[in-house]
Design a protein that fits this description.
Elements lengths: L1 H14 L6 H12 L9 E7 L2 E7 L4 E9 L13 H11 L1 E6 L11 H15 L7 E6 L1 H15 L7 E5 L11 H4 L9 H11 L24 E6 L5 H13 L4 E6 L14 H18 L5
Helix pairs in contact: 3-9, 4-5
């Protein structure tokens, strides 16, 4: 059954191959990501944060005092609230929290540090609303996972209180593309390949910027002092080594880190949770992780 489900997702992706232009790519990820509608009991409220679109979502049983700040994937160049709405809303349901999904500015029109700054603006917005830092989880998939890490490191470096925890799904943590699974998993990954990642990195980064800069490649940064972190990744994805190396580096830096490698799963597989039992189980795991860390008594 599990193999049938993931094969159906692979067939869906194969039926909608990635086009060349940015506008066409953005339309494609929305079409593929939004193939399953949002559950009818989810309340959606659009807002703006400094000119950037965002969306509150809330399941009926959610605690409004706790928030999942969610950043979508798409290689910093595509992805949207719409493409990731099912994933973000169901993650919030599993965590028993409200979700704030942020449509950060995309490259190449808005290269670094646009997304990096939009992530901080979203955090500051939540804090200005009176939401305690220890009631906020930060997470996302792929590039959104990289943004989540970058935000936590930025807050730590500024001496500010950071989130209660991080949830990273198939995070892109190394824009130098040095992970060995970019080669060893190339034939089984239906989505992510080296040439595509190189194009995304070139579009996102200013020409003179070092790809090892921790603000864009947090794998190479100082991870000490980060909050408890859950990393979820599929065994059939080229970015597997971005997760395994991150978990090892975070553990060596005394971060409480949990790595879940899901057999036969592909990049950002919880995106298809409506059709994929393992995607639903992964979100349930993430929800318990977030709930356990955002409901502790405030110090």
């Amino acid at each position: 059954m599990a193999e049938d489900e993931i094969n159906e997702i692979r067939a869906l992706l194969a039926s909608r191959p990635r086009p060349v232009g940015w506008a066409e790519r953005r339309a494609r990820i929305e079409e593929v990501g939004a193939a399953s509608p949002t559950a009818p009991d989810i309340a959606l409220t659009p807002i703006e944060i400094g000119g950037v679109s965002a969306e509150w979502s809330q399941a009926p049983a959610a605690d409004p005092a706790r928030v999942l700040l969610f950043f979508h994937g798409g290689g910093y160049c595509s992805g949207s609230i719409l493409s990731h709405r099912r994933m973000a809303t169901e993650a919030g349901r599993a965590a028993g929290a409200r979700t704030l999904a942020v449509a950060y500015r995309l490259a190449p029109e808005h290269p670094f540090p646009a997304a990096y700054d939009d992530a901080l603006a979203a955090w500051n917005f939540l804090r200005a609303q009176g939401i305690a830092a220890k009631r906020i989880a930060v997470g996302g998939d792929s590039a959104g996972g990289g943004l989540s890490l970058g935000l936590a490191m930025r807050l730590r470096d500024a001496g500010e209180e950071g989130p209660a925890c991080l949830w990273l799904c198939s995070p892109w943590t190394d824009l130098t593309l040095s992970g060995e699974t970019l080669v060893t998993k190339d034939t089984v990954d239906p989505l992510i390949h080296r040439a595509y990642l190189d194009e995304l990195a070139a579009a996102y980064l200013p020409p003179a910027m070092d790809r090892r800069d921790p603000r864009v490649s947090p794998l190479f940064g100082n991870l000490a002092g980060l909050p408890p972190t859950l990393i979820q990744v599929g065994s059939d994805e080229t970015l597997l080594a971005d997760s395994t190396r991150l978990a090892a580096a975070a553990g060596a830096a005394d971060v409480a880190v949990t790595l879940e490698t899901w057999p036969k799963m592909i990049h950002a597989f919880p995106l298809w949770n409506a059709r994929l039992a393992k995607g639903r189980r992964a979100l349930a795991h993430a929800g318990r992780f977030i709930q356990s860390r955002t409901t502790k008594p405030l110090a």
